[in-house]
Protein backbone atom coordinates (compact mmCIF):
# COMPACT_ATOMS: atom_id res chain seq x y z
CA UNK A 1 0.00 0.00 0.00
CA UNK A 2 1.11 3.55 -0.67
CA UNK A 3 1.71 5.84 2.31
CA UNK A 4 -0.95 8.52 2.55
CA UNK A 5 0.68 11.91 2.73
CA UNK A 6 -0.40 13.88 5.77
CA UNK A 7 -0.09 17.59 6.48
CA UNK A 8 2.92 16.72 8.67
CA UNK A 9 4.62 15.04 5.68
CA UNK A 10 4.01 18.07 3.50
CA UNK A 11 5.20 20.43 6.22
CA UNK A 12 8.37 18.36 6.71
CA UNK A 13 9.07 18.45 2.96
CA UNK A 14 8.52 22.21 2.85
CA UNK A 15 10.87 22.70 5.80
CA UNK A 16 13.54 20.62 4.06
CA UNK A 17 13.19 22.72 0.92
CA UNK A 18 13.44 25.94 2.93
CA UNK A 19 16.59 24.68 4.65
CA UNK A 20 18.12 23.75 1.29
CA UNK A 21 17.28 27.15 -0.17
CA UNK A 22 18.79 28.90 2.86
CA UNK A 23 21.95 26.84 2.62
CA UNK A 24 22.28 27.64 -1.07
CA UNK A 25 21.79 31.37 -0.44
CA UNK A 26 24.46 31.32 2.25
CA UNK A 27 26.97 29.47 0.10
CA UNK A 28 26.28 31.69 -2.90
CA UNK A 29 26.89 34.79 -0.80
CA UNK A 30 30.19 33.41 0.51
CA UNK A 31 31.10 32.41 -3.04
CA UNK A 32 30.60 35.92 -4.37
CA UNK A 33 32.65 37.51 -1.59
CA UNK A 34 36.27 36.90 -0.64
CA UNK A 35 35.58 36.66 3.10
CA UNK A 36 32.53 37.16 5.30
CA UNK A 37 31.71 36.84 8.97
CA UNK A 38 28.73 34.89 10.31
CA UNK A 39 27.20 38.15 11.52
CA UNK A 40 27.52 39.80 8.12
CA UNK A 41 25.95 36.79 6.39
CA UNK A 42 23.00 36.92 8.76
CA UNK A 43 22.61 40.67 8.23
CA UNK A 44 22.79 40.55 4.44
CA UNK A 45 20.38 37.64 4.07
CA UNK A 46 18.02 38.59 6.88
CA UNK A 47 18.53 35.28 8.70
CA UNK A 48 19.00 34.55 12.37
CA UNK A 49 22.50 33.79 13.67
CA UNK A 50 21.51 30.24 14.76
CA UNK A 51 20.15 29.47 11.24
CA UNK A 52 23.34 30.75 9.63
CA UNK A 53 25.48 28.88 12.15
CA UNK A 54 23.73 25.57 11.50
CA UNK A 55 24.14 25.91 7.75
CA UNK A 56 27.78 26.96 8.03
CA UNK A 57 28.46 23.82 10.04
CA UNK A 58 26.87 21.67 7.32
CA UNK A 59 28.83 23.42 4.57
CA UNK A 60 32.03 23.02 6.57
CA UNK A 61 31.38 19.31 7.10
CA UNK A 62 30.84 18.96 3.36
CA UNK A 63 34.29 20.48 2.78
CA UNK A 64 32.96 23.54 0.94
CA UNK A 65 33.89 26.35 3.33
CA UNK A 66 36.58 27.04 5.90
CA UNK A 67 37.48 29.52 8.60
CA UNK A 68 40.06 31.84 7.12
CA UNK A 69 41.43 34.05 9.86
CA UNK A 70 39.59 36.78 11.74
CA UNK A 71 38.41 40.32 11.07
CA UNK A 72 39.71 43.33 12.94
CA UNK A 73 37.90 43.86 16.22
CA UNK A 74 35.31 46.64 16.42
CA UNK A 75 35.20 46.58 20.21
CA UNK A 76 34.36 43.00 21.04
CA UNK A 77 35.40 39.50 20.16
CA UNK A 78 37.02 39.26 16.74
CA UNK A 79 34.67 37.77 14.13
CA UNK A 80 35.83 34.68 12.29
CA UNK A 81 36.35 35.12 8.55
CA UNK A 82 34.66 32.49 6.39
CA UNK A 83 35.54 31.72 2.77
CA UNK A 84 34.75 28.98 0.30
CA UNK A 85 37.32 26.33 -0.62
CA UNK A 86 38.16 26.90 -4.28
CA UNK A 87 39.34 23.38 -5.03
CA UNK A 88 36.54 21.64 -3.13
CA UNK A 89 35.15 20.75 -6.56
CA UNK A 90 36.71 20.83 -10.01
CA UNK A 91 35.49 20.64 -13.58
CA UNK A 92 37.15 19.88 -16.88
CA UNK A 93 36.55 21.62 -20.19
CA UNK A 94 37.25 20.19 -23.65
CA UNK A 95 37.18 22.36 -26.78
CA UNK A 96 36.99 20.39 -30.02
CA UNK A 97 38.08 22.17 -33.21
CA UNK A 98 38.98 21.06 -36.70
CA UNK A 99 42.70 20.76 -35.98
CA UNK A 100 43.19 20.51 -32.23
CA UNK A 101 41.76 19.70 -28.82
CA UNK A 102 42.07 22.05 -25.85
CA UNK A 103 41.73 20.69 -22.33
CA UNK A 104 41.44 22.74 -19.13
CA UNK A 105 40.87 22.03 -15.46
CA UNK A 106 39.15 24.76 -13.45
CA UNK A 107 38.24 25.15 -9.78
CA UNK A 108 35.02 26.51 -8.29
CA UNK A 109 36.16 30.09 -8.87
CA UNK A 110 36.72 29.49 -12.58
CA UNK A 111 40.51 29.73 -12.24
CA UNK A 112 42.43 27.59 -14.73
CA UNK A 113 44.56 25.10 -12.78
CA UNK A 114 45.91 23.23 -15.77
CA UNK A 115 45.58 23.47 -19.53
CA UNK A 116 46.99 21.85 -22.62
CA UNK A 117 46.42 21.90 -26.36
CA UNK A 118 46.84 18.80 -28.51
CA UNK A 119 47.15 18.79 -32.30
CA UNK A 120 44.48 16.40 -33.50
CA UNK A 121 42.63 16.65 -36.81
CA UNK A 122 38.93 15.92 -36.38
CA UNK A 123 37.64 12.68 -37.86
CA UNK A 124 34.12 11.36 -37.58
CA UNK A 125 35.39 7.91 -36.63
CA UNK A 126 35.24 5.55 -33.62
CA UNK A 127 39.03 5.82 -33.25
CA UNK A 128 38.84 9.60 -32.87
CA UNK A 129 36.17 9.26 -30.18
CA UNK A 130 38.27 6.66 -28.36
CA UNK A 131 41.25 9.01 -28.47
CA UNK A 132 39.15 11.73 -26.81
CA UNK A 133 38.44 9.37 -23.91
CA UNK A 134 42.12 8.49 -23.60
CA UNK A 135 43.19 12.14 -23.61
CA UNK A 136 40.60 13.13 -20.99
CA UNK A 137 41.63 10.31 -18.63
CA UNK A 138 45.33 11.02 -19.14
CA UNK A 139 44.82 14.74 -18.53
CA UNK A 140 43.04 14.08 -15.23
CA UNK A 141 45.59 11.44 -14.20
CA UNK A 142 48.44 13.87 -14.90
CA UNK A 143 46.73 16.53 -12.76
CA UNK A 144 47.25 14.43 -9.60
CA UNK A 145 43.90 15.36 -8.13
CA UNK A 146 41.25 13.59 -6.13
CA UNK A 147 39.04 12.28 -8.95
CA UNK A 148 35.99 12.34 -6.70
CA UNK A 149 36.19 16.15 -6.84
CA UNK A 150 35.65 16.21 -10.62
CA UNK A 151 32.08 17.27 -11.34
CA UNK A 152 32.27 16.40 -15.01
CA UNK A 153 33.55 17.34 -18.45
CA UNK A 154 32.09 20.19 -20.47
CA UNK A 155 32.55 19.77 -24.21
CA UNK A 156 32.57 22.81 -26.51
CA UNK A 157 32.01 22.18 -30.20
CA UNK A 158 31.78 24.55 -33.19
CA UNK A 159 28.27 23.88 -34.41
CA UNK A 160 24.54 23.85 -33.88
CA UNK A 161 23.33 21.41 -31.24
CA UNK A 162 20.14 19.41 -30.96
CA UNK A 163 17.41 20.69 -28.65
CA UNK A 164 18.51 18.30 -25.89
CA UNK A 165 22.17 19.42 -26.29
CA UNK A 166 23.27 15.81 -26.78
CA UNK A 167 24.25 15.85 -30.45
CA UNK A 168 25.86 18.17 -33.01
CA UNK A 169 23.31 18.70 -35.77
CA UNK A 170 25.34 20.93 -38.07
CA UNK A 171 28.99 21.99 -38.03
CA UNK A 172 30.74 23.50 -41.01
CA UNK A 173 34.04 23.55 -39.12
CA UNK A 174 33.90 19.80 -38.47
CA UNK A 175 32.29 18.89 -41.79
CA UNK A 176 29.03 17.74 -40.18
CA UNK A 177 26.20 19.07 -42.30
CA UNK A 178 22.50 18.33 -41.86
CA UNK A 179 23.14 15.21 -39.84
CA UNK A 180 23.51 14.10 -36.26
CA UNK A 181 27.15 14.28 -35.26
CA UNK A 182 29.14 11.72 -33.31
CA UNK A 183 28.61 11.03 -29.61
CA UNK A 184 31.58 12.90 -28.17
CA UNK A 185 30.70 11.70 -24.66
CA UNK A 186 30.79 8.00 -25.54
CA UNK A 187 34.22 7.20 -24.10
CA UNK A 188 34.29 9.70 -21.23
CA UNK A 189 33.56 8.20 -17.82
CA UNK A 190 32.47 11.51 -16.23
CA UNK A 191 29.16 13.37 -16.55
CA UNK A 192 29.22 15.46 -19.73
CA UNK A 193 27.55 18.59 -21.09
CA UNK A 194 27.77 19.68 -24.72
CA UNK A 195 27.82 23.37 -25.60
CA UNK A 196 28.30 25.50 -28.68
CA UNK A 197 31.85 26.87 -28.45
CA UNK A 198 30.91 30.55 -28.80
CA UNK A 199 28.08 30.17 -26.27
CA UNK A 200 30.50 28.58 -23.83
CA UNK A 201 33.05 31.37 -24.34
CA UNK A 202 30.41 34.04 -23.78
CA UNK A 203 29.23 32.27 -20.64
CA UNK A 204 32.80 32.36 -19.31
CA UNK A 205 33.08 36.09 -19.94
CA UNK A 206 30.15 36.94 -17.68
CA UNK A 207 30.99 34.35 -15.04
CA UNK A 208 30.57 35.63 -11.48
CA UNK A 209 30.18 39.26 -12.55
CA UNK A 210 27.83 41.59 -10.72
CA UNK A 211 28.02 44.76 -12.83
CA UNK A 212 27.30 43.21 -16.25
CA UNK A 213 24.21 41.06 -16.76
CA UNK A 214 23.51 41.59 -20.46
CA UNK A 215 26.13 41.27 -23.19
CA UNK A 216 26.75 40.19 -26.75
CA UNK A 217 29.89 38.13 -27.24
CA UNK A 218 31.35 38.37 -30.74
CA UNK A 219 33.75 35.52 -31.50
CA UNK A 220 36.31 36.37 -34.18
CA UNK A 221 37.98 33.05 -34.90
CA UNK A 222 38.40 31.02 -38.09
CA UNK A 223 34.68 31.52 -38.38
CA UNK A 224 32.64 34.34 -36.86
CA UNK A 225 30.05 33.45 -34.25
CA UNK A 226 29.01 34.57 -30.82
CA UNK A 227 26.50 34.39 -28.04
CA UNK A 228 23.78 36.49 -26.46
CA UNK A 229 23.54 36.68 -22.67
CA UNK A 230 20.44 38.25 -21.17
CA UNK A 231 20.27 38.55 -17.39
CA UNK A 232 23.30 36.25 -17.24
CA UNK A 233 21.43 33.55 -19.17
CA UNK A 234 22.33 32.28 -22.64
CA UNK A 235 19.69 32.95 -25.29
CA UNK A 236 19.68 30.06 -27.77
CA UNK A 237 16.78 31.02 -30.01
CA UNK A 238 13.83 28.95 -31.19
CA UNK A 239 16.03 26.65 -33.30
CA UNK A 240 19.30 26.71 -31.33
CA UNK A 241 20.68 29.06 -33.98
CA UNK A 242 20.86 32.42 -32.23
CA UNK A 243 24.08 34.45 -32.45
CA UNK A 244 25.09 33.27 -35.92
CA UNK A 245 26.57 36.72 -36.35
CA UNK A 246 28.95 35.52 -39.06
CA UNK A 247 25.99 35.20 -41.42
CA UNK A 248 24.62 38.70 -40.99
CA UNK A 249 24.75 40.43 -44.38
CA UNK A 250 27.34 43.17 -44.08
CA UNK A 251 27.79 43.97 -47.79
CA UNK A 252 25.02 43.51 -50.37
CA UNK A 253 26.28 41.16 -53.11
CA UNK A 254 29.70 41.16 -51.47
CA UNK A 255 32.30 38.44 -51.06
CA UNK A 256 31.22 34.82 -51.14
CA UNK A 257 30.96 33.20 -47.71
CA UNK A 258 31.71 29.54 -47.05
CA UNK A 259 27.93 29.07 -46.63
CA UNK A 260 27.44 29.96 -50.30
CA UNK A 261 25.74 33.32 -49.68
CA UNK A 262 27.32 36.64 -50.52
CA UNK A 263 28.26 39.51 -48.21
CA UNK A 264 28.29 37.62 -44.87
CA UNK A 265 30.29 39.13 -42.01
CA UNK A 266 32.34 35.91 -41.88
CA UNK A 267 33.82 36.70 -45.29
CA UNK A 268 35.12 40.03 -43.95
CA UNK A 269 35.98 39.44 -40.29
CA UNK A 270 37.09 35.85 -39.78
CA UNK A 271 40.63 35.28 -38.52
CA UNK A 272 41.46 33.82 -41.94
CA UNK A 273 41.06 37.28 -43.50
CA UNK A 274 44.12 38.32 -41.49
CA UNK A 275 46.19 35.13 -41.27
CA UNK A 276 45.98 34.41 -45.00
CA UNK A 277 48.37 37.32 -45.57
CA UNK A 278 50.95 35.83 -43.17
CA UNK A 279 51.33 32.21 -44.28
CA UNK A 280 48.28 31.19 -42.27
CA UNK A 281 49.65 32.50 -38.95
CA UNK A 282 47.57 34.99 -36.98
CA UNK A 283 50.44 35.83 -34.57
CA UNK A 284 52.66 36.53 -37.58
CA UNK A 285 50.01 38.85 -39.06
CA UNK A 286 50.04 41.00 -35.92
CA UNK A 287 53.82 40.84 -35.81
CA UNK A 288 54.02 42.18 -39.38
CA UNK A 289 51.36 44.78 -38.59
CA UNK A 290 53.42 46.11 -35.69
CA UNK A 291 56.47 46.27 -37.95
CA UNK A 292 54.59 48.48 -40.41
CA UNK A 293 53.85 45.92 -43.10
CA UNK A 294 51.94 47.83 -45.80
CA UNK A 295 49.87 44.86 -46.89
CA UNK A 296 48.88 44.05 -43.32
CA UNK A 297 48.04 47.71 -42.60
CA UNK A 298 45.66 47.83 -45.59
CA UNK A 299 43.99 44.56 -44.61
CA UNK A 300 43.68 45.67 -40.97
CA UNK A 301 42.14 49.02 -41.91
CA UNK A 302 39.46 47.31 -43.99
CA UNK A 303 38.94 44.63 -41.34
CA UNK A 304 38.27 47.24 -38.65
CA UNK A 305 35.90 49.19 -40.88
CA UNK A 306 33.64 46.18 -41.43
CA UNK A 307 33.99 45.09 -37.81
CA UNK A 308 32.86 48.55 -36.64
CA UNK A 309 29.71 48.23 -38.76
CA UNK A 310 28.93 44.85 -37.24
CA UNK A 311 29.58 46.10 -33.70
CA UNK A 312 27.30 49.09 -34.17
CA UNK A 313 24.57 46.83 -35.56
CA UNK A 314 24.80 44.64 -32.47
CA UNK A 315 24.70 47.70 -30.21
CA UNK A 316 21.60 48.98 -31.99
CA UNK A 317 19.91 45.58 -31.69
CA UNK A 318 20.68 44.74 -28.07
CA UNK A 319 21.70 48.03 -26.39
CA UNK A 320 24.25 46.31 -24.15
CA UNK A 321 27.99 45.68 -23.91
CA UNK A 322 29.66 44.03 -26.88
CA UNK A 323 32.61 41.80 -25.99
CA UNK A 324 35.22 40.89 -28.59
CA UNK A 325 36.59 37.37 -28.27
CA UNK A 326 37.88 34.48 -30.31
CA UNK A 327 41.36 34.27 -31.81
CA UNK A 328 41.37 37.90 -33.00
CA UNK A 329 39.74 39.16 -29.79
CA UNK A 330 42.83 38.03 -27.89
CA UNK A 331 44.88 40.66 -29.77
CA UNK A 332 42.38 43.51 -29.58
CA UNK A 333 43.48 45.17 -26.33
CA UNK A 334 45.91 47.61 -27.93
CA UNK A 335 43.58 48.42 -30.85
CA UNK A 336 40.47 48.94 -28.75
CA UNK A 337 40.57 52.76 -28.67
CA UNK A 338 40.81 52.94 -32.46
CA UNK A 339 37.92 50.52 -32.90
CA UNK A 340 35.78 52.38 -30.36
CA UNK A 341 36.18 55.58 -32.37
CA UNK A 342 35.12 53.80 -35.58
CA UNK A 343 32.10 52.27 -33.86
CA UNK A 344 31.11 55.60 -32.29
CA UNK A 345 31.16 57.31 -35.69
CA UNK A 346 28.31 55.03 -36.76
CA UNK A 347 26.33 55.29 -33.54
CA UNK A 348 23.18 57.43 -33.73
CA UNK A 349 22.80 57.87 -29.98
CA UNK A 350 26.19 57.75 -28.24
CA UNK A 351 29.34 59.84 -28.63
CA UNK A 352 31.75 57.09 -27.61
CA UNK A 353 32.23 53.35 -27.83
CA UNK A 354 32.88 52.63 -24.17
CA UNK A 355 30.34 49.79 -24.32
CA UNK A 356 32.88 47.85 -26.42
CA UNK A 357 35.05 45.49 -24.36
CA UNK A 358 37.71 42.86 -24.96
CA UNK A 359 37.51 39.35 -23.60
CA UNK A 360 38.83 38.37 -20.15
CA UNK A 361 39.88 34.93 -21.37
CA UNK A 362 42.40 35.46 -24.14
CA UNK A 363 42.89 31.72 -24.59
CA UNK A 364 40.76 28.60 -24.09
CA UNK A 365 37.60 30.60 -23.36
CA UNK A 366 35.33 27.95 -24.90
CA UNK A 367 36.88 25.14 -22.86
CA UNK A 368 36.63 27.20 -19.66
CA UNK A 369 33.01 28.09 -20.34
CA UNK A 370 32.11 24.48 -21.00
CA UNK A 371 33.67 23.47 -17.67
CA UNK A 372 31.84 26.27 -15.87
CA UNK A 373 28.50 24.78 -16.89
CA UNK A 374 29.26 21.98 -14.43
CA UNK A 375 30.28 24.51 -11.76
CA UNK A 376 27.05 26.44 -12.27
CA UNK A 377 24.96 23.30 -11.90
CA UNK A 378 26.81 22.36 -8.72
CA UNK A 379 26.35 25.84 -7.23
CA UNK A 380 22.62 25.69 -7.89
CA UNK A 381 22.33 22.40 -6.00
CA UNK A 382 24.44 23.06 -2.90
From TrEMBL:
GO MF annotation terms: DNA binding; kinase activity
Known function: Transcriptional repressor of xylose-utilizing enzymes.
Classification via InterPro entries: ArsR-like_HTH, ATPase_NBD, HTH_CRP, ROK, WH-like_DNA-bd_sf, WH_DNA-bd_sf
Residues covered by the HTH crp-type domain: 28-84
Keyword Transmembrane attributed: no
A Pfam cross-reference name: HTH_24
Name of the protein in question: ROK family transcriptional regulator
Keywords for the protein's UniProt record, in alphabetical order: Carbohydrate metabolism, DNA-binding, Kinase, Transferase, Xylose metabolism
Species this protein is from: Paenibacillus sophorae
GO biological process: one example: D-xylose metabolic process
Domain of life: Bacteria
Upper taxonomic lineage: Bacteria, Bacillati, Bacillota, Bacilli, Bacillales
Similarity field: Belongs to the ROK (NagC/XylR) family.
KW Transferase (keyword) present: yes
